[in-house]
Design brief:
single chain; 135 residues; alpha/beta; 2,3-Dihydroxybiphenyl 1,2-Dioxygenase, domain 1; 2 domains; four-stranded mixed β-sheet
């Protein structure tokens, strides 16, 4: 058993793809035409970090109820966690790409962490490895 996908509700497919693929560096796994449960056209868009097995389904909001949840899927908490090997490099790359960090980098027992917003306004932890213990 494994977690295959999580969904993030977004305003629009193409800008979300651009953010996750061009800005964050995720792979575009699938972008296929599909239908809603009641037969209207939509797209099935999946992105995921390189070499990851769990992907993100970018789901364009359909109706007022879903539009109200854009950026609030986890009620303002950090709900997504992106682990990287080189925190300083990735943090700098994302800052240069214009990603909005709402909490500056800090060191925690589990590693370096900074909080950023995705294109929908959801909070993500950028996580790096723990710093080596002093000798």
């Amino acid at each position: 058993m494994h977690l295959e996908l999580i969904a993030i509700i977004v305003e629009e497919y193409d800008s979300a793809i651009e953010f996750f693929v061009e800005t964050l560096g995720f792979d575009l796994i699938e972008d296929s035409p599909s239908l809603t449960n009641d037969g209207r056209p939509k797209r099935w868009v999946v992105v995921r970090p390189p070499a990851a097995t769990t992907g993100i389904l970018l789901a364009q909001a359909d109706g007022d109820r879903q539009r109200c949840t854009i950026g609030e899927q986890v009620a303002g908490r950090v709900g997504f966690f992106l682990r990287v090997e080189d925190f300083s490099r990735e943090y700098g790359r994302l800052v240069d790409a214009g990603v909005e960090f709402v909490i500056e980098p800090r060191t925690e027992p589990y590693g370096r962490v900074a909080v950023f917003l995705d294109i929908a306004g959801n909070r993500w932890d950028l996580l790096g490895p723990p710093e080596p213990a002093p000798v």
